[in-house]
Write a structure and sequence with these properties.
Blueprint: E1 4-10, H1 17-25, H2 27-30, E2 33-39, H3 44-52, E3 58-62, H4 63-71, E4 76-83, E5 88-93, E6 110-112, H5 118-129, E7 139-141, H6 145-153, E8 159-163, H7 164-172, E9 177-183, E10 189-194, H8 195-200, H9 202-219, H10 225-233, H11 237-245, H12 257-269
Parallel strand pairs: 1-2, 1-3, 6-7, 6-8
Antiparallel strand pairs: 3-10, 4-10, 5-8, 5-9
Helix pairs in contact: 1-9, 4-12, 10-11
Length: 286
């Protein structure tokens, strides 16, 4: 059986462990898929750029980030939800910063991985929900988590949004302080694929999704999952347990129009999308 190569990208976080396990087991290969994984430390903004530049065929990325980028011309579509549960963003500052709580952050300088990444979009959505606003010049690009740690330590920036459990080891080690949390009001991760690939190899994308959904289904009932997450991603077993039990993966490709409309509404209220902006088709129709 001739295999179809699919270049899939994602962040180096515990959410993507089911994909790595499926690849290690040879499950993609047995379905005729040569899955080539690329890790993106820079998050969703880096992945949307990679989709536009034909550096990858598909990626697992933040729902709000890909909706915003498809709306602004990214030639891709959402093919499935990946994680049904929302993302809990930790709101962080440097250990020597005088910031003490969430309510004090809106006039400060924000560290972001890239414009269009979750670390950029979510502070705006959060601020809007509190009747506050953040100006463009308040954002400073730091590329990734390593860049954020350095920037916050030097107090070049004051605030940094990143997934709570990914940053917790740095909080525990005294390298970051968490001063708040923000929970996205929608499923956190989706899978997006470039339109060219959907036109050329639709059956291969369907087979890839079946492997991912099957592995996610098994992972949620795997008694060894918590230990694996703890060891592979160097987080405490207690934190791995809390994260695992609060996370639900998708086991089918259905994408809710109501969910998309909720994200679009929030992005428009926050000024990330224009209020009267006409949107292209966001979801791949099988």
């Amino acid at each position: 059986m001739e295999k179809t190569t699919i270049r899939l990208g994602g962040v180096p976080e515990h959410f993507n462990l089911p994909v790595h396990l499926a690849k290690e087991k040879g499950n993609f290969s047995s379905r005729g898929i040569d899955l080539q994984w690329t890790t993106f430390d820079g998050g969703t903004g880096q992945m949307t750029a990679a989709l536009r530049n034909d550096e990858i065929d598909a990626c697992i990325l933040l729902t709000e980030g890909i909706i915003k980028d498809i709306a602004n011309g990214n030639p891709s579509k959402i093919v499935s939800v990946y994680v049904n549960s929302p993302l809990t963003w930790g709101i962080h500052t440097g250990v020597h910063n005088k910031l003490q709580n969430h309510s004090e952050i809106y006039d400060r300088t924000y560290a972001i991985s890239r414009f269009g990444s979750g670390s950029h979009l979510m502070p705006i959505v959060d601020a809007t929900s509190h009747d506050k606003s953040i100006q463009h010049e308040q954002f400073k690009i730091i590329k990734n988590l390593t860049g954020a740690l350095e920037s916050l330590q030097k107090q070049e920036t004051d605030v940094f949004y990143w997934e709570k459990f990914t940053t917790k080891p740095y909080v525990d080690a005294g390298q970051l302080r968490r001063i708040g949390e923000y929970v996205t009001p929608w499923p956190c991760f989706v899978i997006a694929v470039r339109n060219e690939i959907l036109d050329e190899s639709p059956e291969a994308i369907i087979r890839m999704l079946r492997v991912i959904h099957d592995e996610c289904d098994q992972f949620m009932y795997n008694h060894e999952a918590i230990d694996m997450v703890s060891k592979r991603y160097e987080i405490t077993k207690k934190d791995a347990e809390r994260w695992f039990n609060s996370t639900e993966w998708a086991i089918h490709g259905w994408v809710s129009d109501k969910m998309l409309n909720n994200v679009i509404f929030n992005l428009k209220v926050a000024g990330i999308l224009e209020k009267n902006q006409e949107l292209p088709e966001l979801i791949w129709k099988r």
